[in-house]
């Protein structure tokens, strides 16, 4: 099964760690996503289903696109961004000024350190795997082969890390640009759900 992961575009709080904050897309953010998706549609790339995080920076665009393409839309609670606890809505610059060591530890060793009162990486990973198991099941039941998944930077980085079989401490070095699309294969393996990288078509 092919899953195309579209990261939401720029938002009103793009200068901060947004996590579960429900901030809106800016006009520029909407345009970033629209431009990326249009490139795929122009190349005759279509999706059987559109799946989105419930947060409006993903969901509103997904709803609009599903209407436009006449495709089913599913909302999956488990593919929300990592929860950053006390750092929600705070810029990395401000965190660096107040607790530089904590930020550096989190940046370099996310498997061992987390935002104060935030979601540990292991729990975030577990939540995502539950979400993608649900997605795999829904796609299987409906005989869908391709899905556009509108989601977040942290989600894309973690899945790319798993697909490349890299150490999870390399998570933050993975690509996930605003409004850009990343293709993976969703696999059903003996040990559970797996991911494999694909080369982008257009």
From TrEMBL:
GO cellular component, one term: cytoplasm
Transmembrane segments: none
GO molecular function, one term: phosphatase activity
CDD domains for this protein: HP_PGM_like (cd07067)
Superkingdom assignment: Bacteria
Protein name stated in the entry: Alpha-ribazole phosphatase
Naturally occurring in which organism (per UniProt): Acinetobacter haemolyticus CIP 64.3 = MTCC 9819
């Amino acid at each position: 099964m092919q899953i195309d992961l579209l990261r939401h575009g720029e938002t009103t709080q793009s200068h901060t760690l947004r996590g579960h904050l429900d901030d809106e897309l800016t006009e520029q953010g909407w345009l970033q996503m629209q431009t990326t998706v249009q490139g795929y549609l122009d190349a005759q790339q279509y999706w059987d289903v559109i799946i989105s995080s419930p947060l409006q920076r993903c969901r509103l665009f997904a709803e609009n696109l599903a209407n436009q393409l006449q495709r089913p839309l599913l909302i999956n609670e488990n593919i929300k961004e990592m929860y950053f606890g006390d750092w929600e809505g705070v810029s990395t610059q401000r965190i660096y000024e107040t607790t530089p060591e904590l930020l550096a530890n989190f940046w370099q060793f996310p498997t061992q350190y987390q935002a104060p009162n935030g979601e540990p990486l292991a729990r975030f990973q577990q939540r995502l795997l539950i979400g993608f198991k649900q997605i795999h099941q829904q796609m299987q039941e409906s005989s869908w082969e391709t899905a556009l998944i509108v989601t977040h930077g942290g989600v894309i980085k973690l899945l790319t890390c798993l697909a490349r079989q890299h150490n999870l401490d390399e998570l933050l070095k993975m690509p996930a640009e605003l409004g850009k699309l990343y293709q993976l294969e969703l696999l059903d393996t003996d040990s559970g759900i797996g991911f494999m990288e694909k080369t982008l078509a257009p």
